[in-house]
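G.,

No rush on this.
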Amino acid sequence: MTKIAIERYLKKYNVEFLVNEGLPEDVPDIKAIYVLPRQRMIFDVFQQLNYNKLQGLTMRNYEVFQPRTFEEFKNIISKIL
């Protein structure tokens, strides 16, 4: 997936992400993925993946996933797609 494809996908499903601040060089674009609880499909997939890097907040807040590499990010997105 290209960066553009990822951005289009995230916008389509109202998934927000922040621009990198101090991540490893191979993660140039993504700081974190914020999944809105109302986006049930994405929320459920992230819950099922059960990564220790996934921090389950309250249902009123965002779910936060912080990939350590761009490959990790692409793997997560490909599972959602």
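When you get to it, here's the other one too:
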Amino acid sequence: MTTESEEGVASRRFSYLRDPEAIYRQSFATIRAEARLERFPPDVAGLAVRVAHACGMVEVVDDLLFTPDVAARGRAALLAGAPVLVDCRMVEVGVIRSRLPAENEIVSLIGDPSLPDLACRLGTTRSAAMVELWRDRLEDSVVVIGNAPTALFRLLELLQEGAPKPAAILGFPVGFVGAAESKAALAESDQAFLTLPGRRGGSAMASAAVNALARAGSASSASARTGWTACPPRPVRSMTAPRSWSAASGTWRWCRRMAAAASPGRRSCWSWCRRSRRCAAAASASWPAATRCASESASPCRAASRSPRWWCCRRPRPSAWPAPGSAGRWSRPAW
């Protein structure tokens, strides 16, 4: 559509999808429809989809090499609080910190002031020299390489020399010199890994793989805390006073984003969130009213959450609902 401004200059309005959640859903649906994911275990398939999404090329799914346990080991490490060791700042920036299930530290040492001298002494690149600084943090960590083949080569050398083993290696160095060779060496190692052979790779793919691990890891973390099968990625912390119910605005936003799909379970969850907004208003005036609302509303969302593919609303933990007549004390309601 073309419109004319007051100055007489013609401007064109484009018709395109604007809803970010709808864009994500359509993107992932396209990848799953076009990619051949049958050879992947379900948890590794999630990583493959994210990697394809990061580069816009469905065909990379056919080329990915992996060990079947890479996703399970990586997620377990994140849940245990392991650090994420990255080879460049671009990977560090690409990782969504709020998704990390245990506020995991992202270790990027490429800017360490000692690196130039260390690289000069070792006769290697700064990226490879940086791996020397990882020695004390390698054990059960998640190592992510999205830039420098020399970093991956040196990491594999350290492991052959007896350095502590990381839980998982996400190897996506990119380039024309050493990238293909370093990833081939990774594929021949006894490490848990995910990699894309050849010259292709990059920080976007590497950080996308971490985000896929972190997203599933945060779900498992919330499940362990609440006893639910599938829980929100970032649950609201327990609240301590009536005024804290203003945090329900976060509930409302999350439900609008996460429960937009047209599945019956998510529609139930969406209905729960609409009621939860009324719960927030009720809580500021009366504890019993808020508790009644909670008891009526929680069951559909809890039932919908039984499938790990349904991400339900962001909501307080069950223990955060107020008990009738209490003055600042909290107890879990009877479902």
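The two ends are 53 Å apart (CA to CA). Confidence is low (pLDDT under 50) at residues 219-335.

Enjoy the weekend,
O.
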